[in-house]
Fold this sequence. Notes:
Layout: E1 14-19, H1 32-42, E2 46-51, E3 55-61, H2 64-73, E4 77-79, E5 85-87, H3 107-118, E6 129-133, E7 136-140, H4 146-152, E8 158-161, H5 165-176, H6 187-194, H7 196-211, H8 213-224, H9 231-263, H10 290-294, H11 300-346, H12 350-379, H13 387-417, H14 420-464, H15 477-483, H16 499-515, H17 523-545, H18 559-583, H19 593-615, H20 621-646, H21 650-653, E9 658-660, E10 666-668
Helix pairs in contact: 5-17, 6-7, 7-9, 7-17, 8-9, 8-17, 9-18, 9-19, 11-12, 11-13, 12-13, 13-14, 13-16, 13-18, 14-17, 16-18, 18-19
Amino acid sequence: MNGVEEEDPIVYEIAVVVPRRNLKLENEGYDCVEVLVNEFRNVGFVVERVFGLHDEFIKLAAPLETLGRVAAGLNMKKTTHIGVDLQFEWEEIEAFVRQSDGSLFSWCERFQCYRHLIHETVNKKNSDITLKFDGKEIQWEPGESLLQRLELEGIVKQVFPLHDETKRKKLLRSWALNWWDVTTQPIDEINVYFGTKIAVYFAFLGMYTRWMIFPAAFGLILQLVDFGSLKLLVFPAFFISIVLWAVLFFQFWKRKNSALSARWHLNFSAGTSHGYKLSGSEWNCLQPPMELVKDSGIDKTKEKEDFQRYEWFGYLRRCRNDAIVILSIICLQLPFELAYAHLYEVIKSDIMKFGLTAVYLLVIQYFTKIGGKLSIRLIKHENNESTEYQADSLVYKVFGLYFMQSYIGVFYHALLHRNLMTLRQVLIQRMILYEVFENLLENSLPYLKYSYKKFRAVRNKKKREKGSTGKIQFATRVEKEYMKPTYSASICEELEDGLFDDFLELALQFGMIMMFACAFPLAFAFSALSNIAEMRTDALKLLVILRRPVPRAAATIGAWLNIFQFLILMSICTNSALLVWLYDQEGKWKIEPGLAAILVMEHVLLLIKFGFSRFVPEEPAWVRAKRMKNATQAQAMCSKQLLRSISGGDKAFGGYTPRKTSYGTNKTD
């Protein structure tokens, strides 16, 4: 919903799923679903009930006034026209900045209001209320949320966001099906419809693909042109250029990210936990213990020591958990990966290699699942400030597993056997086949799941209605959306959504093309084509195949930025080793002028990597100017308000009245 005005058409954005049944008229007043619908109307929702083949769907929409009252009650902060974030007040609605589509609240803010409202259906009486459902009695206790009680009883099956058909079709035309604009995307519309986190991902993917044109063209020239003896000069030049390209790209991405945040009126200091499936009771390590907060002000020295102890114990626990993950990877996964790479090298039969790869893929799936579960258990004992920090901690830990399984075999072929042809074959297999297979898998599997659910629903309906011979179809859009899969992560759905897998795919691709650029320059061209297709297939996946995702309010790409920076450092080391290998083909490892130049070049590139942040500011000048202007305006308004308070006389200062003299100074009566 757009935070719609009263005259605007109602847009239903949330659906509650309950079983469909034949309700007896004499029991309607006591039926728990009827009571739930009435409670929804009492808290301000516009309700529509839709009956499907097997379930009933309660569609919810909230008028603008309802959302505004809830936002004010939640003390939600919004950006004002002077650039300052203030607590929202419904009576001062004109003081707050609207979204790019004219709506007052963003999708993240609306979802937060919806989530609060649907759990406001509490029993306000002092005694239990007995409700009925298909002959079963349910006790609704005082102060208990009716929705939570029905979820525990299995009556409420799911609560999920609904697509807005008008906006969805508009995005399909202007974005997903618009192949003429190769890398251009309606980022503002994506932000309005899907939320900040998904919009930031597509902004990053679009910029990354556009910047990929230069190394793709350079790599294509290297692959097609035979430079002969000049390759010892051309490959170092290519290596230097791609490192500079990567460093510059991420510096300019930080600038773009800052510009997007300013354009969307995002506050980096604001809480980023909105939009998560996580509830506060599930994780008890997000904030300092309540006893520390309650005791504040009693003994300042003891209070400071308690907070410092809490802070450093949190750091130590995090370091301990990271050490556990790293040692597990080194002691368990590394030997397994090396054994697979060695067997793949020595086995001559293609059939045996195929069988070995099948066993490897099967076992590695269990390794990854076990590693993900271990990471989740470790994260529960960390003092992370918000769910975004928890998600970042999970990304760091799980990426170590994927880094090992994706690159260790390539390192084995590159640095131990020093076989350039085998290395290129492995890179082609892992890049081209992986990209094609991954894209087919991530888009076909959700569709197959959706088709199978529809088939089962129709088959079960026919079994119950044995006399029916007509064709059974889904008549309602909400039931079709209910059948669609969710935008979920392959690991830890509590903390991450499908963006984890999308960013993981980009990071593994970036590491592959950067760390082995000198061995296979053509990889950049393949990646550019793959990313162009990825933008459209991801858009179709979100708009057509999957349900509307739960919004997330994070304003950056989070831990993935540090992972990309780490991969740049790794690429400097690995490409330097590849250049040494190309230069010293006899394997004598003599420090001759060529090898010495490569070592010097490596150190210079490392210095450039860390020094470029000084030359390219992370924040554009217009963003800094706007921020300073807003700060000046806010200070001026606060100064005027303070002067008005001072001029209030007796009311402001309890009898103190300043009196002006002839010289313009004040004297006290």
